[in-house]
Design brief:
Length: 437
């Protein structure tokens, strides 16, 4: 075999990165593989849009079936995103004996179990390194490099858009709205940023990573999701006074009461390495029983970083094909994927940050603390300053560990007090110690 033929469906930003890498690094890749990676055809619905890389006209098509039905194409790369027609294309490629590379985290988070099973039945591989953390080789590390470990915790900053927004709010004090506008102007955020700022994109990635880490099916619907749209710079400022930085954190944790899967704004200690992840960068922190704590850091999106991850999958598949290995590693890294007990968010036990907007008069603090005590919520620290916010003053509290269900009941009762002027702001705290989990 002198060359492997690749068909690319989706000539967008990441597709351009893949083409650029295949072209510019072709000789390096040939030496590493012993065969040529040949881009035989590129399909996209819009072939006229200006792009940063050129493609010969004779390999372009608007019909993806010219790739799917071509018996000479060995690997199909799907980069169109969304559920359909991507799902149909992937199934058709597998049916026709082709291996698939995809960066489609939304599709895999929702339909991954079905697609992985279909790939297994057809003795073909779906490779998806680029679906989680962009250019960071995290999936490979989780499935292979950390395979010896019983992993109990994953903490991830997995969305560069959200992290950029929170970084700007932290460093400049601007509002969420202004930080989002800047992110859009710089190209970090889409015109419709909903998936990024509401935590949905992060939840897609967490569902995939947790499935590998815990030998369980992909369980996107079980992930608790909360975005950053209600974050106020005031809360970031108060958090800093307590020694915390605010991050949109993906958390997967194995506990005695089941597996936690949650995405929400989170205060982490300023001395933890995740607190220093700035701008559009991603980071994933993992604890395994043998390896201890490890962290992966880098660009989680973009033409070239994500293109790098896609081409790394192509290289892995090329090695398997040339050595006659059809399915060397199961899609989720385990031959025995089992349903897991999942811990609902109501049963979460953690520390909390509260900001109450209350009338500045005697007895208010005792009323609030009395209700918290009624629900077994213990106060660790309090800040009360005479800053008037909407006609009220902020009272900020940090709690010891409490149960989410009790916290929700307490806040509902507090918010109905006649001395409280606005809905209480809540941020969960991950009690991390230094560089440990």
């Amino acid at each position: 075999m002198e060359r492997l033929n690749i068909g690319l469906i989706g000539w967008g930003t990441v597709g351009c990165g893949v083409i650029e890498i295949l072209n510019s690094n072709s000789e390096i890749l040939r030496k590493r593989l012993g065969v040529e990676l040949y881009l035989k055809r590129v399909a996209d619905i819009d072939l006229e849009k200006p792009r940063p890389v050129d493609v010969p006209m004779d390999i372009l098509t608007v019909d993806a079936n010219q790739i799917l039905e071509d018996p000479d194409i060995d690997i199909v790369v799907e980069l169109i995103g969304g559920t359909e027609p991507a799902k149909t294309f992937i199934r058709k490629a597998l049916e026709r004996g082709k291996h698939v590379v995809t960066a489609n985290k939304a599709l895999l988070a929702v339909h991954g179990n079905e697609l992985f099973d279909f790939a297994r039945k057809n003795q073909r591989i779906i490779a998806y390194e680029a679906s989680v953390a962009g250019g960071i080789p995290f999936i490979k590390a989780l499935r292979e490099g950390l395979a010896a470990n019983n992993i109990d915790t994953i903490l991830g900053i997995l969305n560069g858009t959200a992290n950029f927004i929170l970084t700007r709010m932290t460093e400049t004090g601007v509002s969420f709205k202004d930080a989002l506008k800047e992110a859009q102007e710089r190209g970090y955020a889409e015109a419709d940023p909903t998936l990024d700022i509401e935590g949905i994109d992060t939840a897609h990635k967490l569902a995939i990573a947790a499935a590998i880490a815990f030998n369980m099916p992909v369980s996107f619907d079980a992930v608790y999701k909360e975005g950053i749209t209600n974050i106020d710079p005031l809360d970031i400022e108060f958090g800093r006074e307590f020694g915390f930085q605010l991050k949109l954190l993906a958390i997967a944790r194995k506990t005695s009461k089941g597996i936690e899967l949650r995405v929400h704004p989170t205060f982490v200690p300023c001395d933890h390495v995740l607190a220093g992840v700035r701008g559009a960068y991603n980071a994933v922190y993992v604890h395994g029983d043998a390896v201890g704590n490890v962290m992966f850091y880098g660009l989680g999106a973009g033409m070239m970083p994500t293109g790098s991850a896609v081409v790394s999958d192509i290289i892995d598949l090329a090695r398997d094909i040339t050595h006659g290995a059809s399915v060397r590693i199961p899609p989720l890294g385990s031959y025995e994927v089992e349903e897991a007990e999942l811990k609902p968010i109501d049963e979460l036990e953690t520390s909390y940050y509260f900001r109450f907007s209350a009338v500045d008069q005697p007895g208010v603090l005792s009323k609030i603390s009395g209700i918290l005590g009624k629900y077994n919520i213990s106060i660790s620290a309090v800040i009360q300053k005479g800053r008037h916010v909407g006609g009220a003053v902020p009272i900020v509290m940090i709690t010891h560990e409490a149960v989410e269900k009790a916290v929700r009941k307490a806040l509902d009762e507090i918010d109905r007090l006649d001395v409280v002027r606005a809905k209480t702001q809540l941020v969960r705290i991950e009690n991390l110690s230094g560089n440990g989990i």
